[in-house]
Amino acid sequence: MAISFSLEGKAALVTGANTGIGQAIAVALAEAGADVAVAGRSEPTETLRAIEATGRKAVNIKADLSSIEPVQRVVDEALAGLGRLDVLVNNAGIIRRDDLLQFSEEDWDKVIDTNLKTLFFLSQAAARHMAERGSGKIINIASLLTFQGGIRVPSYAAAKSGVGG
Ligand SMILES: NC(=O)c1ccc[n+]([C@@H]2O[C@H](COP(=O)([O-])OP(=O)(O)OC[C@H]3O[C@@H](n4cnc5c(N)ncnc54)[C@H](OP(=O)(O)O)[C@@H]3O)[C@@H](O)[C@H]2O)c1
Question: Is 37 in the active site?
Fold first, then answer.
């Protein structure tokens, strides 16, 4: 019997999957039948093991996503490792907290770059491949702060509002 939501034969790329929500998403995609590449700056040992335990292929891509420098390589390595790319989950994200009156430019730029700029340009790189193939899904992890302001998190609220946009 066909399983609803089966991802058998599909390939997914998840950013920031060594821990937290990204790890849960990567493993859930594998459990649904997809081969999964994970991209991030920390070793995703536990995630790779959990993906492989489902019988699916796991690919590890080392990348610091605080700039857009690695985005094309990340897509290229996912394609080289999995042979195709059907799903991109933009999960990697950071938050910086400080009072509005002293919030630093560095904390503004770091959060906007990681949570919004890289998300867009990684999506663009993946979308070019998906458009060529005629299909693909891009899932962005937003936040409640996509829809409301946040106290002491101006760059995070701005980035996540941008993601919603
Ligand atoms: N937890 C919540 O309540 C909540 C609520 C709404 C939205 N979200 C969103 O959900 C997503 C995951 O959050 P989480 O709670 O699971 O957070 P988390 O446990 O801190 O995980 C964030 C992931 O992003 C990765 N990451 C951060 N900066 C990176 C960089 N420069 N290059 C590569 N990877 C980077 C982290 O890698 P490292 O381990 O190397 O830092 C980690 O894998 C984020 O987009 C977050 O904004 C979370």
Answer: no
Ligand 1 atom with minimal separation from the 160 CA:
47
- For residue 115, the ligand 1 atom closest to its alpha carbon is 45
- Average pLDDT value for residue range 95-117: 98
Crossing angle for the helix pair 71-82 and 118-133, to the nearest 10 degrees: 40
Q: Dump pLDDT digits (tens) for 112-139.
A: 999 999 999 999 999 999 999 999 999 9
Highest CATH level, class, for 11-164: alpha beta
Taking CA atoms only, the protein residue closest to ligand 1 atom 21 is: 20
pTM comes to: 0.98
Distance, in Å, from the CA atom of 127 to the CA atom of 21, rounded to the nearest integer, reads 23
Domain ranges of the chain: 11-164
Alpha carbon 92 to its chain centroid, in Å, reads 5
Strand ranges across the sheet with 58-62: 58-62, 35-40, 11-15, 87-90, 137-140
The answer to whether the CB of 91 is under 6 A from ligand 1 is yes
Which residue out of 25, 156, 157, 160 is catalytically annotated?
Answer: 156
